[in-house]
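Hey, resending since the last one bounced:
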Amino acid sequence: MLSYSDTTEHSFLGEFDLLCHSHTDICELDWTKPAHCEATVKYFKLCCAHEEITQLNVEVHRLCTAIHDEATQMMTVITELLVLDPPLVHELQWQWKACEAVNTVHTFQLDRITLQPGFSGSRGIGQQVGAITAALEPTNTISHSMAGGDGTFFCFEIYTSTKLLP
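The structure tokens again:
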């Protein structure tokens, strides 16, 4: 009598066109058994999951570092501009407040990830590789302004510096 499991096993083997034209009986080999096939698929999925965890450990650390570096840079720029251009400082502070709120949510979630019992990445703030920290004194400032079509006003400045911090 033909059982359901026999039928599914034969249908599984029938998916291989090459085997249909073969003159060798392969029905009893280990790799033809559905359980072995499923175990192999699960093994490779597990390997991919380990690679993903490794990549996420790196990305969590990088994102923490990027958020920290952005906050430090923004505070430095705002402090430098306090004397030079108070209206621009007001606009930057307003824009930064919204960005900082988003960063706070992200930082909270990143902290929750790093506190998970299975987290195996680095905790805390890292150091940006290849970063050159330039002092903002003395600086040459190039200002640009433009008005948007909806009445919004955009300002941005480009800073150049000749002095490097030790």
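Residues 34-84 form the longest helix (51 residues).

Sorry for the duplicate.
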